[in-house]
Amino acid sequence: MTAIFLAILVGWIAILGAAFGSFFNVVIWRVPEGMSLISPPSHCPKCGARVRPFDNVPILAWLWLRGRCRDCKAPISVRYPFVEFLCCAVAALFGASILAGGWVGFASQTLNWAEFADYSRAWEAAVAAFEADPTQTTTLTFDGYWAAAQKAIALSFVWAFAAYAALILGFVEWDKGAVPKSLVLFATAVPVVGLLTILALSDVGALADRCGVFGASVGSGVAATLVFWRALPRSERAETAAIGALWGFCAGYWGAFLGVVVLLGVATAVRRKTGRNVFGLLIFSAIFALAVGESVWFATR
Ligand SMILES: [Zn+2]
Q: Minimal CA–CA distance to 256: which of 202, 205, 201, 210?
């Protein structure tokens, strides 16, 4: 029963993620062009016909339209459902991790690892007690752990944002070769401010500690950019340092500098070979891989 309830909840979170993906497609397409995100409403770039509300359903609409505009039959890129699918997967992964009693937030960045371990064990014990005797609902008291759960949920939002931000930067970079500075600033500032706010509200000691992580991640981004200084075009050095810092922030103590150097090295090599910028997409892949890795680690602990 509990498993079915959790599965339905994760399903809803995944649908929410897909809806975000649908919006991010609009961001990826319109922000670099300096267009409004709201008007004009979604329309076919070929014939200008407005997308009907029921054809706006993430992922599925592309399938039942068979990848073509309903009006002029112009092909619709598979990129749209692909981005929606990736966002759906991020939401499902982070949601499932939280609800399963674990959390995705990268162990090195937790406020207090023991606190989350306690929270996880209490959650498991309470669910087991409830399953043994559903009438004994009084055993489901999370009082001491609700605060930790709130922090875990808030932190998962921050990490999901970091993953989504890297995804948006990655696709804009792929399309345009560079990312608008406003988008880079927004994408790196929100996770950083979000995390520091959660820390400030919960634990001042941890805040000071994490400021160290923040400093280290910015340092890693800048240092790694210096390593590839000559290979990077002048216009992209600031962006690369910012994206590197975002990665360093996520990786935390897990070898931020090494991680950034490897990622930037691969991205620089790809750029030399193909002329494409893949810095953002590599960061997204890395955050995603870290999230999967940590979920598996937490689940099998
Ligand atoms: Zn059309």
A: 210
Give the burial class of 72: count Cβ atoms within 10 A of its Cβ; 0-12 exposed, 13-18 middle, 19 or more buried: exposed
C-alpha 97 to ligand 1 mean position (Å): 40
In the reported structure, the alpha carbon of residue 88 is separated from the centroid of ligand 1 by a whole-number distance in angstroms of 26
Average pLDDT, the chain: 78
- Of 280, 22, 4, nearest in space to 162 by CA: 280
Over the stretch 19-50, which tens digit does the pLDDT of each residue have?
A: 999 999 999 999 888 888 888 888 888 998 99
Alpha-carbon gap, residue 231 to 48, rounded angstroms: 41
Task: Answer yes or no: is pLDDT of 82 > 90.
Answer: yes
CA of 30 to the centre of ligand 1 (A): 18
Q: Are 280 and 247 in contact (CB under 8 A)?
A: no
pLDDT above 90 as % of the chain: 19
Q: Ligand 1 centre and the CA of 82: distance in Å? A: 20
CA distance 191 to 247: 11
Name the residue ranges covered by the structural domains of the chain: 1-99
> What are the tens digits of pLDDT across the range 146-168?
666 677 777 778 878 888 888 89
> Which stretch of 140-149, 175-184, 196-205 has the lowest confidence by average pLDDT?
140-149
